[in-house]
């Protein structure tokens, strides 16, 4: 299990960027989060709290769990502040064959 402390560590390759792009695609195409995808597409430093309300964050978390077959626990969830944080967490937890 990845600790909240490890969420901020950079990825070794561009897997993080591909995962971030997939998260933006999920927000736009699957969840139809109006306006949120534009805010998230602003970059990996896009703050999730500012871009999404609590229901949208929950919907996105569930969709990300489903897409990458991971579980996001409360501890890690509290450490996720930006799109980049979420992408790093996914890269750390997902099986490599599930990454874009």
TrEMBL record:
Residues of the Carrier domain: 24-90
Parts forming coiled coils = none
**Cited SUPFAM superfamilies:** ACP-like
Q: Mind telling me what this protein is named?
A: Carrier domain-containing protein
| Organism, scientific name | Anaeromyxobacter dehalogenans (strain ATCC BAA-258 / DSM 21875 / 2CP-1)
